[in-house]
Each structure stands twice: as structure tokens, then as C-alpha cells.
Design goal:
There is one protein chain. By secondary structure, the chain is mainly alpha-helical. The protein has a domain at 21-48 and 95-178. Helices cover 70% and strands 8% of the residues. The chain has helices at 2-15, 20-36, 38-46, 51-67, 99-110, 116-122, 125-147, 152-178; strands spanning 73-75, 78-83, 86-91. Strands 1-2-3 form a three-stranded antiparallel sheet, covered by helices on one side. The longest helix has 27 residues, at 152-178.
């Protein structure tokens, strides 16, 4: 029995060891991922924005709010809702579109060593990231209309920032599992 425990520990230990080949694959992945992240930095530095994506995000968010019974009003890219002691308004700007999250998922998918065909299939998850982002916007307005502004910054900054990172990683891992074979 004692030999069985030792053997299984050795086997488990061996399972998590990295060879030089594995380390090289990880290094190549990280280099490719960072190369695919270059557009992120270029977009940030240049100030480039797609106004149609901001407008689309605003319109869909406003529709979702109205559809779910939240009394919202729209002026340009500013959505307002009544709250207990006044109103709350938020501008749907470039960062609200989820472009960074979509670009991050794109970079993760294209940094892998999967075939081009499998990587292109992975692009199906990018609109799903956009949909999650729309739900994020709707949720933040719902949260404020239901609970006020007291915890808005905590929910917006912590929960949704980390939540979108989690969503991106879940979609990426799901894609890799689907196309692993």
C-alpha cells in the first residue's frame, strides 16, 4: 500500500513537470499574444474610435433597459434613469463597447498553435463577449435603479472588470476544449 502511494505521488509529480519543449511553447504563445496585443496599444495611443460601435452599444443598451421596464431616457450617447433622490446618467463611451475584451479574446485565440481554420472558428466567441458586455451595461443601470449609487463603484470596478476577464478566459478555455482534438 505504501508503494502505491509513493508511485501515485511520483506519477502526479511527473504530470505537472514542464519539459524544455513545453517551456518553449509557452514562450512562443506569450510572444504571439503580446504581438497580437499591439493593436490595443496603437488604438489607445492614437485615440482611434469606431463611433458606429458606440452608437450601436448605446442603442442596444437603451433598448434592453426599456424592454426590461427600466424608465430610461436617451440623449446622444448618454442614458439616464430616475433614482430615489434624482437621476443617474452614464455616457456610453468607447471603453463601454467592450472592444478591449474582444481584442483580448482575439489575441488569446490567435496566439495558440491551432490551425487557422480552428482559430477562425474561435471568432464565434467574440460576439458573445459583446453580448456579455451589453448585459454588463444593462446590469449596472438595473443595479443603480434598484439599489442606488452607494455600491456602484465597487460593482462597476471590481465585479465587472474581473467578471469580464473571467468571461474571456472561460470562452477561451471552452474554445480550446472544443477544438483540442
Amino acid at each position: 500500500m505504501d508503494k502505491m502511494k509513493k508511485k501515485s505521488r511520483k506519477q502526479r509529480k511527473k504530470k505537472f513537470e514542464f519539459s524544455k519543449k513545453d517551456a518553449f511553447k509557452i514562450l512562443v504563445f506569450l510572444i504571439k499574444f503580446n504581438l497580437f496585443a499591439i493593436p490595443l496599444y496603437l488604438i489607445i495611443i492614437s485615440g482611434f474610435q469606431l463611433s458606429f460601435l458606440k452608437d450601436l452599444t448605446t442603442d442596444i443598451s437603451f433598448f434592453l433597459l426599456k424592454f426590461t421596464g427600466i424608465d430610461a431616457s436617451l440623449s446622444g450617447n448618454i442614458i439616464s434613469i430616475p433614482i430615489k433622490d434624482g437621476s443617474f446618467a452614464a455616457t456610453i463611451d468607447w471603453d463601454c463597447t467592450g472592444w478591449k475584451s474582444m481584442l483580448a479574446l482575439f489575441a488569446l485565440i490567435f496566439a495558440t498553435d491551432f490551425s487557422l481554420r480552428k482559430r477562425l472558428y474561435g471568432l464565434v466567441f467574440i460576439p458573445l463577449v459583446y453580448l456579455v458586455n451589453l448585459l454588463r451595461i444593462w446590469f449596472m443601470f438595473y443595479f443603480v435603479s434598484s439599489f442606488g449609487l452607494l455600491y456602484y463603484n465597487i460593482v462597476h470596478t471590481l465585479v465587472w472588470s474581473w467578471g469580464l476577464i473571467f468571461v474571456i478566459l472561460v470562452f477561451w478555455v471552452a474554445w480550446m476544449r472544443i477544438f483540442k482534438s
